[in-house]
Amino acid sequence: MSGMRRTVWGILAALIMVLAAGCSFATKDPDYTPPAPLPPLEQLEQVPVTEQSSLAAGEDVTAFVTADRNIVCAMTSSRGGHLNLPYEANSYSDAANNKFAVVPVVHCELAVYSKPDVDDITDDCAGTGLGYLGGTVLLSPDKAVYGSCRSGVTQMESELGPKGSHAGPISKLRELADGQNIERNGLRCSAYNGGVACGNVSGGVAFFVKRQGYQLISDGGKTVRGTLKDPA
């Protein structure tokens, strides 16, 4: 009987050795360097488009926040410079705007952001006393602009900025996971590399924005402006 037990234990020991030999253990390679992030237009072109229905924020708007809750974007429309935003009061629906063409746009706001580069300040605010501030970016089919004339905080800063309430319409939006692309009306957005890239791929126009800075891309990627010289 004791001999049989020794045989059984021997078989079990052999099986354990076989299983152990078949296991692999990952070890960190000290010489491994992760590949550099793709340029924004390449990221938008190469990453498959994700189903966007869960990100709908109304019939005419697709909106999302990033995983770190630093960026909110609305893939929406503009009429005469008025934006249809689901989380900020606006005059987009005023009857006086019906005479203007509807233009597809993407508008993003940041909770923490960098100042605009002096060369990217596109408006003197017409003597209104408003400041040209960072924290917003707007993409239309033919250009991307960082910053705007405004006073006070944006809805994103109010909710999720350093002194934010962490409650409000933006806090209820769905998250666009890192590495996902969505598309609406010919414009595409991707959350990656700690920020968001949005662009008109066929038109060669895009932006990339994150808390550390931004890029404005045109001419199919040949012209890059902003405080970030590369997407890393």
Overview of this protein structure:
The protein has three helices and twelve strands; from the N terminus they run ααββββββαββββββ. The chain is α+β, with helices and mostly antiparallel strands and 232 residues long. The model is unreliable at 18-24 (pLDDT under 50). The N and C termini lie far apart (68 Å). It has helices at 2-22, 40-46, 155-160; strands at residues 62-65, 71-79, 82-83, 102-110, 131-140, 143-150, 181-184, 187-192, 195-200, 205-210, 213-218, 223-225.
How would a crystallographer describe the biggest sheet?
6 strands, antiparallel
In quaternary terms, these chains amount to single chain
- Which residues form runs of ≥5 with pLDDT under 50? 18-24
Beta percentage is 25-35%
Cα gyration radius (Å) = 25 Å
**Could you say which structural class the secondary elements and strand pairing correspond to?**
alpha+beta
String of helices and strands: HHEEEEEEHEEEEEE
Distance between the termini: 68 Å
Q: How many beta-strand elements?
A: 12
Helix content: 10-25%
Average predicted local confidence, pLDDT? 85
Number of helices: 3
What best-fitting shape do the alpha-carbon axes yield? globular
Nutshell version of this structure?
By secondary structure, this protein is of the alpha+beta class.
Structural descriptors:
232 residues, alpha+beta, 6-stranded antiparallel sheet
